[in-house]
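Page 42, continued from yesterday. The earlier attempt failed because a stray header line got pasted into the input along with the sequence. Redoing it now with the clean sequence only.
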Amino acid sequence: MLLEKAPESLVELKQAITECHPRLSKRLRQVAEYLVDNPNQIAFDTVAVISKDAGVHPSTLVRFANSFGYTGFSEMQRLFQQKLMQEAPSYQERIRIARQESEDMGEAPDQLLEQFVRANTLALDTLSKTTDGAEMERAVEILASAKATHIVGVRRAFVVASYFAYALRHIDRRAYLIDGVGGMYREQASTVAQEDAMVAISFHPYAEETQDVAQVAVERGVPLIVITDSQLSPLASQATACFVVKEAEVHAFRSLASSLCLAQSLSIALAYRLDKQQALDIV
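This time it went through. Structure tokens are written below.
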């Protein structure tokens, strides 16, 4: 048993999982990652379904719950169910409807479009409800104080990273996209100074290039803003400000709408902050 007393809320459980994650066995880490990334499935599904989706034996789920002080998996599962009950009354039903509609609809272009629109609408609504306003304020303050902002994101995350650099440059901020041309990620990261800031965007399976660049920022004491998809992301524990974004997924194709929306919101919030400061300076 990892804990003497079982966490009494989902927030406490997720915090305990994050702290204990490095000490878990390979199979229990697998459960931890599935649990953190799929809270709605944990709340709705049976042990048989969850174990199949997580790729573990049902007894591993019970062993995981026991490790955190619960008498069984059902006791831990109730935390996830209670959390959904505290959400907007229609939230639980909307998830069920979205899942059913995705299964019922065909694959004609207009039907696929409707599926992606519905899935992204739900994901964006979730982004609005789950993003911490204080964390956004912290990120905007970091960006406002930085002399320059260095942004890194590879493969799928490159779209978000390049947009972030584009948006910051359009509000007259010094923004540098670390794109690793010629494999020179570390060489580009070497220009990061203590008075700068870094934004790292990374989704599972978490590119090593992004982790290496972020590590440079951490070693130099540079504030690190992270956009990722799990609290157990290797970047999350190093972040000065961290945003866990759950993107829409249709037929195993993941969207980027929520991450782009967050990047745009931070950029425009920064623009408002700078404009307000400039007006005060004039006065």
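Notes: The domain at 10-86 is CATH 1.10.10.10 (Arc Repressor Mutant, subunit A).
Reminder to self: strip header lines before submitting.
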